[in-house]
Design a protein that fits this description.
This protein is of the alpha+beta class. It is built from 19 helices and 19 strands. It has a seven-stranded mixed sheet, sandwiched between helices. Strands 3-2-1-6-12-11 form a six-stranded mixed sheet, with helices on both faces. Strand 15 and strand 16 form a beta hairpin. The protein starts with a strand and ends with a helix.
Length: 491
């Protein structure tokens, strides 16, 4: 059987990588080619993404592919959601894209709700309210009289913006657009009333295209510089979680997934959006998936807390590997202190450890006294937050949830996986860790006519990776901890 090779560009909020995806004999092989940083830039009080550096890193990956003579059939780009760039009438990129952690959106949703109520915004979009959603970024930029917005002819979300730099062709891929809180999931189009309330014309956005649409080919100049032919660029499931969900190795629809990384995203896959009073109350979101599905999910602050503690300790001269962090947490005493990982004080603090200490002090709990205790607090709190969100999902899902699939980098954290199985009380299956890049490559394969649908993709994933099962244990102990967690978060 002929091998088919694709290049997946997977860009996260802290790092990016290029991955070679090869399909052969019904299985998937992966090879990471390059890995590179993605850092926010702070300039004059505003936070940006250095998209030109990302473009350069991608160009280096393309050059490497040419040097190694990889027979690429196409490439695709997935990124984080909500952020975007502005394109001028002549096609010029109008500066660096603003980063979602820029504080210019602080308090903006409440200001916007004076124009259109919170309930109406949710009814129109089915998206949970988060300060940094594209809707509020645009409203903040409009109030700032932000020059790039005033001069823009087109707005492109991050994966589409990268593809535009590579091809010179602009499209709007559905899964990325669906994170914006501007798109109506019932009509599949941008909601004019929301854009009118922001004060910008609907012409700044084009109608979304489905995942698997061909954007174009590498520009002649880029192809020549990299030493490649004009490689097709596919609009994959552009939002990284949408790509990751493609690679959930489920055999039937009765599953929940937890995409575990800097952010944790817990949800289910449904055929239709779920937009009602309870989903609004629980602040769940309806984002686009492939093949017309909906990713009904909730964003949870994930390994961000650990990453920020680790960075802080490194500046203090203490460098830990990821396995060391897990071992440290394993050896620490259990359930001493618990926090709500989604508390606003953890969004972007100067010191994560001080923020955790303040939370514990304010809720009458012991303050962690060692790095190990901080880690134990974070891991236990994450597992209990997952239980809380899964209970909400159980109330809203149109089917019984029989198992939880953990995908992404966090699926390798055996301690947190066992904690999560214990807290939720249902079987947990961990893997693949590389779900996003796999999903990216599989959508390219579908665009090339090599796979039929998402279920064939998932069978290939299950046949290609080692999965780890976790069975709940110590359930009474974790039920007591959950009741303590509920009391703490209400203080």
């Amino acid at each position: 059987m002929k091998k088919h090779t694709f290049l997946a560009i997977d860009l996260g909020a802290t790092s990016g990588r290029s991955v070679l995806i090869t399909l052969s004999h019904g299985k998937i092989e992966m090879q990471e080619l390059t890995r590179f940083p993605n850092n926010m830039l702070e300039l004059h009080g505003k936070y940006y993404w250095n998209i030109y550096a990302l473009y350069q890193y991608i160009k280096e990956a393309l050059t490497l592919c040419a040097e190694r003579k990889f027979p690429l059939e196409s490439m695709g780009v997935d990124t984080w959601g909500v952020d975007f760039g502005y394109i001028a009438p002549d096609g010029t990129l109008l500066g660096l894209p603003r980063a979602y952690r820029d504080p210019y959106t602080d308090g903006v949703p409440d200001e916007f709700f004076k124009k259109i109520s919170r309930d109406e915004v949710y009814r129109l979009t089915g998206i949970q309210v988060l300060n940094f959603n594209s809707l509020y970024q645009l409203y903040a930029a409009s109030r700032e009289q932000f020059a790039p917005l005033k001069s823009a002819a087109r707005i492109l979300f991050m994966p589409d913006l990268i593809s535009y730099l590579l091809t010179g062709v602009d499209v709007c891929e559905y899964t990325a657009a669906s994170t914006s809180q501007i798109l109506n999931p019932v009509t599949g189009c941008f909601e004019p009333s929301l854009l009118e309330a922001v004060g910008i014309p609907p012409t700044l956005f084009t109608n979304p295209v489905s995942s698997g649409t061909k954007v174009g080919c590498l520009t002649p100049a880029l192809a020549m510089e990299a030493g490649l032919p004009q490689l097709p660029v596919i609009a994959v499931a552009g939002h990284d979680t949408a790509s990751a969900v493609v690679a959930v190795p489920a055999s039937n629809p009765n599953f929940a997934y937890l995409s575990s990384g800097t952010w944790s995203l817990m949800g289910i896959e449904t055929e239709h959006p779920i937009i009602n009073d309870k989903s609004c109350l629980f602040n769940f979101t309806n984002e686009g998936g492939i093949e017309g599905t909906t990713r009904f999910l909730k964003n949870i602050t994930g390994m961000w807390l650990v990453e920020q503690c680790r960075k802080e300790w490194e500046h203090q001269g203490h460098t830990y590997t990821y396995p060391q962090l897990v071992e440290m947490a394993t050896d620490a005493p259990s359930f001493i202190s618990l926090v709500n990982p989604d508390d606003s004080r953890f969004a972007n603090p100067r010191s994560m450890t001080l923020a955790i200490a303040d939370y514990c002090r304010d809720t009458g709990q012991p303050i962690p006294q060692s790095h190990s205790q901080y880690l134990r607090c974070i891991f236990e709190s994450l597992a209990l937050r997952y239980r809380e969100v899964l209970d909400m999902l159980r109330e809203l899902a149109p089917f019984p949830i029989l198992q939880l699939h953990v995908i992404g980098g966090g699926s390798q954290n055996r301690l947190l996986n066992q904690f999560t199985a214990n807290a939720t009380g249902i079987p947990l299956i961990a893997g693949p860790a590389e779900a996003t890049a796999m999903g990216n490559g599989l959508v390219q394969a579908k665009a090339g006519g090599l796979v039929a649908d998402r279920w064939e993709m998932r069978r290939m994933v299950a046949a290609s990776v080692d999965l780890t099962d976790y069975t709940p244990c110590d359930t009474a102990l974790w039920q007591d901890a959950y009741e303590k967690y509920q009391r703490v978060i209400l203080k």
